[in-house]
Structures are given as structure tokens and as C-alpha cells.
Design goal:
mainly alpha
């Protein structure tokens, strides 16, 4: 499961980069990047700045989660708050398993965040090319709900005590 989540994360990063490379040449020089509740644009910027800002946001978020995953095991146990912490930190095998599960939840969450960024990027690009605002609210809400429920529910499920320990 862990490898699948890492691959999902990598796929969303590659999809975003591919999206930028594919759409950038066809974008007008100035594009709308913010829309009011009626779907009318109310902020415009140059396309290079849009790509720079959007890529920067995505890059920093992914970098933050990568650093989190790489260094979570270096954080002192007393600073970690987790369900059944005494159980998970009782020995090195469980501690290693705990950190692997934290990385899985982190990969899942950043994959969902990347999917949301891809949807928003796609909506901005579609408006720039067609002047029609179409935002897939159903897909956005569905991904947001899955990420939020997964980010909350997965730790409760993953960090419960195993049957043999009871």
C-alpha cells in the first residue's frame, strides 16, 4: 500500500508538470487567475507570473511534505502526539512501522492536494482559452472530502493496536 501511495503522489506531480508544459505555449499573455462567486474574473496577471506562482505553490507544498516524510523519524518521540503512542514506541519494530504509516498518510494527503491544484489549474487554463468559467465543483468537493476524511480517518485506523497486542 505504501508504494502505491508514493506512486500516486509521483503521478500527481508528473501530471501537474505535464499540464504546465502542455498548456503554457497556448495561453494568452495575460490570464484571469481569480474569479468572484458569479464566475467573473476579478484578478488578471501575466502568464509567466501565473506559472511561476502556481508552480511555486505546488513545489513548496510538495517540498514541505517530502521534508516531513524524510525527517519525521528524527523528531523526538516526546514531541509526537499519536493514538496508542506507548504501543507504537514500545520497540524499534513498531516505531519503524509507525513512521512508515505516517509516510503513507502524508503521501495520500499531498496526492489529494495535488489533485485539487490540478483541477484549479485546469479551470484557469480553460477560462484563458475559451473565456468560459467552468469549475468541476463536484470533483473538487469529492477530492476534498476524501482527503479530509482520509487525513482524519486513516490515522485512527492505521494507528490502532494490532490484535496480537490486545
Amino acid at each position: 500500500m505504501g508504494r502505491l501511495l508514493y506512486l500516486l503522489w509521483l503521478a500527481t506531480v508528473i501530471a501537474f508538470i505535464g499540464q504546465v508544459i502542455y498548456f503554457y505555449p497556448g495561453l494568452p499573455d495575460v490570464i484571469a487567475v481569480h474569479f468572484n462567486m458569479a464566475g467573473e474574473p476579478d484578478r488578471w496577471i501575466e502568464k509567466w507570473r501565473f506559472i511561476l506562482e502556481w508552480g511555486g505553490i505546488s513545489g513548496l507544498l510538495n517540498l514541505f511534505f517530502l521534508v516531513l516524510m524524510l525527517f519525521i523519524s528524527k523528531v523526538p518521540a516526546k514531541l509526537i502526539s499519536a493514538p496508542n503512542k506507548d504501543y507504537w514506541f514500545a520497540n524499534n519494530e513498531r516505531k519503524t512501522c509507525f513512521y512508515a504509516r505516517v509516510r503513507q498518510v502524508t503521501s495520500f494527503c499531498i496526492s489529494g492536494i495535488n489533485a485539487i491544484l490540478i483541477i484549479v489549474f485546469d479551470s484557469v487554463v480553460k477560462f484563458a482559452r475559451t473565456s468560459e468559467f467552468t469549475f468541476p465543483m463536484t470533483a473538487f468537493v469529492a477530492i476534498l472530502a476524501v482527503v479530509m476524511l482520509g487525513g482524519i480517518g486513516a490515522p485512527v485506523f492505521l494507528f490502532r493496536k494490532t490484535e496480537e497486542s490486545k
